[in-house]
Amino acid sequence: MNAHPLSALLAPRSVVVLTGPEGQRTAEAEQLLAQLSAQPFQGPCAILDAHVRGSLADLAQSRADLAILALPESEWLSGVELASRIGCRAALIVGSGVSADRAVALQRLARREGLLLAGPNGSGLMTPRLGLNASLMGPLVPAGGLAVLSQSGSLTAALLDGTRTSGVGFSTVVALGPHPGVDLAALLLYLAVDPHTHSIVVHLEGLTQARPFMSALRLAAHAKPVVVLKTGRREEGRSVAQTHSQALAGHDDVFDAALRRAGAVRVNASAELLAVAKCLGVLGRGSRPVQKGLALVSNGGGPAVLAADWAERVGLAVTAVQDLSRGGTPGAYTAAVLAAQSRADTDAVLVLHAPLLDSPGADCAQALLDLKPELSKPVLACWMGEGVAAEARTRLGAAGIPCFRTPEAAVGALAHVAAYHRHQHLLQQTPSPLSPLPPPDLEGARLLIDTALAQRRSVLSEVESKALLAAFRIPVTGTLRARSAHDAMLIATQLGFPVALKIDSDSLPHKTEVNGVMLDLRDARAVHAGYDRLLEQVRRALPGVVDLGVTVQPMAGKSRARELHVGLIHEPSFGPVVVFGAGGTQVEWIRDCAMELPPLNRFLARQLMMRTRTAVTLDAWRGAPAVQWEALEALLLRVSEMACELPQLREMDINPVLADEHGVVAVDARIVLAAEAPATVTPSYAHLAIRPYPAHLAHPLALRDGRICQVRPIQPDDAERLQALVASLSPESRYNRFAATLTELPPRLLAQFTLIDYEREMALLALYREAPDQPERIAAVARYTSQPDGESAEFSLLVADGFAGQGLGSRMMESLFVAAREQGLQRLDGLVLKANTAMLRLVRGLGFSIEPCSEEPDFRLVRKPL
């Protein structure tokens, strides 16, 4: 409805520079002024001496969207006040080394003054299409469609310097430092809807609040390709881990898992960053998905071998190699590329050219350019060498055929394109916090946790841990605690032999490390003697431990079962993470695990397992039949449910899990709780990095004529239903909703409407069936989209023509009010065509105010406080 608040910062219509008098400016101020004057800004740009006194009316003549503070640090507070007094909407401070307290004080003042403040620790920003270079990162870069967000000014400057002759153009460049006033999440949300940005590059050094970042990243990555470079792979904290899961997982592994779920692509070197982003800009959204099949066309064996070797390393399968050898003529390239494109097992083609004397590089590049209209699958090129090859790379790149200098770089870029398509599929998964499996005993699970925390215990015993798993219907081996050797013998007799004895102590994270396990005890005498021997050997290994007990459990009896490890960790920024991998006594030595952020569905659970090396052993393996994959998936779904519904969980090991063709069973378990965590019966899921599908908003809705609709939040697979609804509308209804004469939703808009981030948007559907055997159709859609202020949202409503007069519109809006209040929104705003009298009558009856809209005379602005 209104201009995005960040547009005053990133796309200002006017700029004022607050600085000191000539001869008294800081070195940074002089640099900043030089950069601003090196090229014309497309708008008014005034230089104002911040020390000149005058009336407010005189100062107001310098009013601008953006105030740039080229002042010494001691004058920043007064500069922020001055920018506010003259009516600026945003301010930028370029600097470094400012403490957190100082930065927060500046930002607090700016908020109080109603001013958006970027800084004070960044290196500035560039908006090339406007000629704006308010930075210390070198000359203004060319305009284009690539946006760069970075937490390092020096890395950004080096990155930009290396692209001066590459033909890459930029829409926005922002270099943030520590404690920025405008964070990455807000910038990502702006770029997600910025029509001038086609791809986004993000450089991260650290992250403190994962949920807003993940929400913004998911929205941005759904709209356009996002490439992330994360520096800093330190993994502090493993030494104090109380479970194998926590010891196996590092922060960097969790970050990888988060990026996959967000639909973004990670690169590991700055040299890859822009090349991958440019490649994704061409071969990403809208192109045929790249899986694994790669065909090679080359005029020499050496480049093809290099490409094939690198493809194997990055997980791509080479399906064909066409070595033109010394016949690398333009015609030979044309025929070979067409043949490779026609292969059913091939997803993409890499065309390589080495600078051989009898193979004209320029003509061969032209042949590939002439062939472009006939290409049905992604094609990349590698023209090795300089001179003619460099010119060919430029021409091919400009025509939309990504071209690289080395085979390794080309194959690596294609691997990232394949990863992008895989991650986009993960992005479309919208699991609920509870799976479709039979419901767990949530009340019993919460009572067990509350009891332990009330007793000031953060580690559950094995018996308690297994009871918690059983509450979520996870199969466990029965476990009882024995108080004496005699008790152990009696318990074993009742359970049935053979049995296992295990040491039970909160002080021992890993029983096997202190010889705390005895297996396969086959009679009462062995159990009686084993009880005392077990305690003795543990006390010998750890003399200071006093809280020792012994548990008795039956042997699982799965001789051909695979030993697996399933667990949960809590990463400070991202919250709970599900872990899966090889299990047993050597779990940390094997170090084979994969991670995924909850909530999970069956697809995500299967993908999680397939990312481990041990996945190959789960099918028929060395004479043992394949395990029951569905049981493993169900186990992971149960652990995901625990992560979602029990925010007190901090670490969990289920190790080993025995899996075979009959199912799974948890043999041992250890669970660590937050020392102080509030109990909750209805969790808000604020502890999760990804908000689950809000299934609790689903409910039936009765219409006046007796028909029943089912209301639920929208899902990605509702795209076809939504398109059918739009097609069924009358021209008047379509115009009233979209203020356009469209007959169907464009693919990008359709995807934007159906794959939403429930943290920032909500779309409720009313679904009905014309007959029990007919597919569901959409009767109405009520939607809101949060505004950048976080307090208000813009709403819309669409009701199918056949449901007019049924009270459906008002009932859907009331359901939307509930969802908006739950999200903490305080007001709903909307624009309604003044000719749409039915909609105006409906919102008036719901308590909306109706006002003229000065910016859009044909519309009315409607508002309702919540």
Automatic annotation (TrEMBL):
<dbReference type="InterPro" id="IPR016102">
    <property type="entry name" value="Succinyl-CoA_synth-like"/>
</dbReference>
<keyword id="KW-0436">Ligase</keyword>
<dbReference type="InterPro" id="IPR000182">
    <property type="entry name" value="GNAT_dom"/>
</dbReference>
<dbReference type="GO" id="GO:0005524">
    <property type="term" value="F:ATP binding"/>
</dbReference>
<keyword id="KW-0547">Nucleotide-binding</keyword>
<dbReference type="InterPro" id="IPR013815">
    <property type="entry name" value="ATP_grasp_subdomain_1"/>
</dbReference>
<feature type="domain" description="N-acetyltransferase">
    <location>
        <begin position="709"/>
        <end position="866"/>
    </location>
</feature>
<protein>
    <submittedName>
        <fullName>GNAT family N-acetyltransferase</fullName>
    </submittedName>
</protein>
<dbReference type="InterPro" id="IPR016181">
    <property type="entry name" value="Acyl_CoA_acyltransferase"/>
</dbReference>
<keyword id="KW-0067">ATP-binding</keyword>
<dbReference type="Pfam" id="PF00583">
    <property type="entry name" value="Acetyltransf_1"/>
</dbReference>
<dbReference type="GO" id="GO:0016874">
    <property type="term" value="F:ligase activity"/>
</dbReference>
<dbReference type="InterPro" id="IPR051538">
    <property type="entry name" value="Acyl-CoA_Synth/Transferase"/>
</dbReference>
<dbReference type="InterPro" id="IPR032875">
    <property type="entry name" value="Succ_CoA_lig_flav_dom"/>
</dbReference>
<dbReference type="GO" id="GO:0016747">
    <property type="term" value="F:acyltransferase activity, transferring groups other than amino-acyl groups"/>
</dbReference>
<dbReference type="Pfam" id="PF13607">
    <property type="entry name" value="Succ_CoA_lig"/>
</dbReference>
<dbReference type="Pfam" id="PF13549">
    <property type="entry name" value="ATP-grasp_5"/>
</dbReference>
